[in-house]
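Re: beginner question about structure tokens

> Can someone show what the tokenized structure looks like for a real chain? I only ever see the sequence side.

Sure, here's an example I had lying around. Input first:
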Amino acid sequence: MRDAFVVGIHTIKFGKYLNESIKDLSARTVTGCLKDAGMDKKDIQALWFSNSGWGNSKGQDCIRGQVALRPIGIDTIPITNVENACASGSTAFHHAWLGVASGLYDITMAVGVEKLYHSNKTAIFASFLGGIDIENCVQIAESLSGFSLTDEDRKRIEAFKAKYQAGTAANSSGSRRKKTVKTRLKELRDAIVVGITLGEKLGYDTVKKMRALSAGDHSPFMDIYGYAARQHMKKYGSTVEQLAIIASKNHFNSTLNPNAQYRFEVPVEKVLADRIVSFPLTRSMCAPIGDGAASAIVCSEDVAKRLGLSGQAVRIRASILGSGKHYPDGSSGPDIGERLAKASYEKAGVGPEDIDLAEVHDATAFGELVQAENLGFCERGMGGVLAGRGETAITGRIPINTSGGLISRGHPIGASGLAQIHELVTQLRGNAGKRQVENPVLAMAENGGGALGTEEAAMCMHILERPATAAGKR
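And the corresponding structure tokens:
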């Protein structure tokens, strides 16, 4: 395998694009990425297109990349459509790397585009059901009782509310505006539409039994994250306050990122006072839904030199794609994040102590905490302490999610993994402005998606190295 380099990156500002299509967002990021690399679309020899929701929302299945890219003149070349839940964008990037590293192509591209905003809010959260084993959804729904609150948990919630939310809007019965009749009727209609759609696919008895999976205004993954966080707290002594520090840090980082969906600070006390989604997680600790697009161009070393791009060419030291493992009842083993991190370090010939910054999959603040442990940035059980000491801040020992992470940069599923690559390449080039980490050499990305059993169904990790001309040679 030969070395491959990232020579072009781009992301649009994540947010809400109700009046723009997948085609529109694709055109924006592809045009920007080609400009960053100083290339023409005719230079791209193969492309991987990441998207998870276009089929569910608009019925565009099967040939999404070909449909999205033909209007801007990208056709005839191999276009591979990638759908790997929240890990779709990083999976597309992995294959763009593989195409160059294998010698099959000299210049490849990965594009990730997603539109999650929908006028039917129920449909948005129901669409997340595709991230589980849908044929066994009834059994999964029944197993959710295992994530239920215990009496001890309920006591901790009451103590938490008394300490941080007494008299606040989050704990006030009148905190939410009363819905109008028109709003209630729309929500009822939306729920019926989704119920019929799922009923025709899965059977109406099944839909009735699995309502718990998409109840309320959060996905079932939030309950799983909440349960995992509670178990971590019981086993290692991590705290709600540590989770709030992580969330507040990422909200602050996003104020320095012009491409972030949320660009406002949320102090620790406000994170704690926010509405509880799935204890101990409050709304400010959870990633929002959103629309977005991001992309990257990968090429060989010879091409980078020939085109005069060595000064911006970020070397891909490791690109690892893996799947979750089935553990029989009662057994356990290293988490998928720990397994893939080990493989990444071995491939790159480095260790966690060599990494200067990281972007990790913080669908919740607990996601960042546990991935910091999986990636070896601290001992198991010390992820909260690591954040509490300020070591994961931009000026800390191992800055994590300098972009604002999923929590604040946003999480348009098909684009999230490529947005991580955009942030790390920007940092390694020294172009991150006010959020720039001091003299980074190596950066790492972790992006997981879906859920099968106790692990993510898919996960990618990448280790990137700064350009040879940036702050000295390698």
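Each token stands for a local structural state, so reading them left to right follows the chain. The chain has a mean pLDDT of 90.
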